[in-house]
Design brief:
77% helix, mainly alpha, single chain, 6 helices
Length: 133
């Protein structure tokens, strides 16, 4: 289904605002700098791959060896110390947060048929169904 011209126009306007926002631009620059740093990308990829492998092992009832856990911990430490990786993760959090805000408002608007308040989109407290009651 195609959106109406009015909706499309507002979406384009929102996108123009997003790409011109200083915080978004900075986050994108950090992400691009990380992607241009082959050693940082390689280190991060190695840590992520090993992490998935260890997770799969545990999921299948196998225990990771002490050597595997030690290697993963070492890779995590190296990633945390790497400025390009730290900046990339910070940038991801910023961009993900903005996407959550946009999706939250749009989703609630479609769900409720009215423009939601911030409290409706992001309620305070845990609410029902969170598992803590």
């Amino acid at each position: 289904m195609k959106a109406s011209p009015q909706i499309t126009s507002k979406i384009v306007e929102l996108c123009e605002t997003l790409v011109s926002d200083a915080e978004v631009q900075s986050a994108r620059e950090k992400a691009e700098a990380f992607l241009a740093d082959e050693s940082a990308v390689s280190l991060y990829r190695e840590m992520a791959t090993l992490g998935r492998s260890l997770h799969q092992k545990q999921h299948h009832g196998e225990e990771p060896t002490g050597e595997e856990v030690s290697r993963f911990t070492d890779l995590q430490d190296k990633c945390e110390e790497n400025q390009a990786i730290s900046s990339f993760l910070e940038a991801q959090d910023i961009l993900r947060g903005i996407a959550e805000v946009v999706n939250g408002y749009v989703g609630k608007s479609l769900e409720r048929g009215k423009v939601p308040t911030e409290a409706e989109v992001f309620p305070q407290g845990c609410g029902e169904g969170c598992g803590c009651h």
